[in-house]
Every structure is written in structure tokens, then in C-alpha cells.
Amino acid sequence: MIETCGQMAGVRMKKAGIAGGGLLMAAVFVWLSMRWFRGREIGAAFGELVHSPWWILMMTVFYGLSFWMKAVAWRRYVAREKEDRLSGYVYPLFVSLLVNHVLPIKLGDLARTGMLVRMTRMGWEDALHSVAIMRLLDMVSLLLIGSIGATLLGLSVSVSPWIQVALGLGAAGGLLAVSMYIRRMKTEGGKANPLIAVIQRHGERLSTTIGSRRGVGIAVLTLGSWVLEGAVVFGVVHVLHLDVNWLQAVWANSMTIAGQLFHITPGGIGTYEMTLTASLGVLGVAGVDGYTVALLSHGYKFVFAYAFGAVSLVLAAVTLAELKEWVGLRKIGRKNTE
Questions:
Q1: What is the value of pTM for the model shown?
Q2: C-alpha to C-alpha distance for 296 and 59, rounded to whole angstroms
Q3: How far is it, in rounded angstroms, from Cα 110 to Cα 262?
């Protein structure tokens, strides 16, 4: 009972932390809007983008290819190239993107998992494992792009020694707590704990796959997909005649996506604009220009998510009831009516 209460308290604290961070970013976004929102200038920039069809096509092709690479990497990780069609991995990615741009919290991965199970007949445990690992690879890729990009671009971020010490102690404390928790849970009444067995099984599967030649290919595909996604920011800054090259656009986009941890609005409205404006500001782009790029690139991603997500739902013949069940909305609705 005590352990359950502790776990519930931990979950609440995590949610409260994410919500607090999201609210803080939302407040900063409101401040940025009050300072840099210029209706005429944004309208003119939108007009320039609309009248640049070849750049919109380039953005769409590269952005679409980034999801194709993610799907190829995902199917390679589960080692089902011969059993499954690639569409069974592409459609769930687009639907996940759609869900994350409709709901205020990130539930897209639940829809992604449910859709994978439906389309490939894979077990839920294996599907959840693959989605979690691909998300982990996404985050590692973003951090790698961020660190390498900062080095190549000559960027330096000063971090207080006290913050470094706090982060180090926090990481060490977290590892110690996890190790003690796992050690304590290894046996229950003299019997092996099934949870630990599951963790060990999936850990061994991850280490075996990532440490192989197949794992190298998966990592390269995932990293490459995020490089291609930078085409959206690059296309917008080029249309607006801003001095930002491809590497800078990829770096700014990666920093922005990494900042979507604090996601409390559909599509991360507010957090996306704040982080991209700040990232472009580090690169020397004026605040009003960076804000305009953030609005246009995010608007484009919303259109892309709705269009390709809706098409994927139709092609995969997914019903609204199935989608609600995967993300838990049907269960919530039932509880509210009881």
C-alpha cells in the first residue's frame, strides 16, 4: 500500500513538473507575442511562403522522407522486414503525429502502439517495447545533433558550477535509487519478481540489437530522419531571406523538438514557438524574425499533421472508436458517464 502511494505520488510530481514547465513556457510565449507579434509583417511573410510552391514542395518531400526513414528504422528494429509492409509502420507514425497535434497532452505514442498491433498482429508488449526504444533513439539523436551542432557552429552555453553539481548529484542519486529499487524487487517471498524478468528481457533485447550491425543502421536512419526534418525550418528562413544555413536550421529544429517535453497544448503551441525563437536568437536572428519563422514553420507542421494523419486513418481504415480506445479516451468517457 505504501509503495503504491509512493508511486502515485511520483507520477503526480512528474505530471506537475511537466505542467509547470509547460505553463512557464506558455507564459513566455504570451510575452513574446505581445512583444514581437506584427500582424502585417506575419501576413506578408505568409504570403511569401504561399507564393513559393517549390520550397513548400521541398519542405513536404524532405519532411515526409524523415518519417519514411523513421518507419524503416522502426521495422528494422523489430526485425520484421519480410513479414510486414512498410505502411504498417508509416501510418502509425502519421497518426501519432496527428493525435499529438489534436490533444493537449502527448498520447500519440499510445495510438502508434495500438495501430501497430492492429496492422501487424504484433503483441502489445513487443509493440510497446519497440515504440519506447524508438523514442529513446529519437531523444539520443536530438541530443547528439544539439551537441555536435553547437560545437561546429561555435556556440557556447555557460552553465553555473552549482547547476553542474546539482545535475551530477541528481543523476547519481537517481541511479542509486533505481539500483536499490531493482535489488529490493528482485525477489518477493523468495520468488522471482516478474517485473524484473520483463525489464531484463527487454534490456537484453535492446543491447543485443543496438550493439549489432543492424543497430548501427537503425541509429543512422533515426539520426538522418532528424537531419531531414530541419528542411521545414530551412525552407521558411530561406523564403524570408534570413541568413541561416542548413546546419543551423537542423540544429535549431532539433533544439525545438527536444523542448517539446513540456507539451500541454495541441502540437506544443507556445513551447515550440518559444524554443525555436530562442534557438534562432542564439544564431543571431532578430527576435521578431525568429518569432515569425516559428509561427510559419509550426503552422506548416500542423497542416502536414492533419493532412497526412487523416489520409493514414482512411487508408488504414481506422475508426474513431478504435483511436479513442488506444489513447484511453473511451475509458475516460465511460467513467464519466457512470
A1: 0.78
A2: 12
A3: 18
d(CA 201, CA 207): 10
Strands (E), 76-219: 187-188, 191-192
User: Residues near 290 by Cβ (< 8 Å), separated by ≥ 6?
Assistant: 276, 277, 278, 279, 280, 281
From CA 63, how far away is CA 228, in angstroms rounded?
Answer: 6
Name every residue whose Cβ is closer than 8 Å to that of residue 183 and which is 6 or more positions away in sequence.
none
pLDDT digit string, tens, across residues 282-305: 999 988 899 899 999 999 999 999
**pLDDT of 158-200, one tens digit each?**
444 544 455 455 555 555 555 555 555 554 554 555 545 555 5
Poorest-pLDDT segment among 55-69, 161-175, 213-227, 304-318: 161-175
Report the 10 Å Cβ neighbour count for 298: 21
**Cα gap 32→28, rounded to integer Å:** 6
156: burial class by Cβ within 10 Å (0-12, 13-18, 19+)?
Answer: exposed
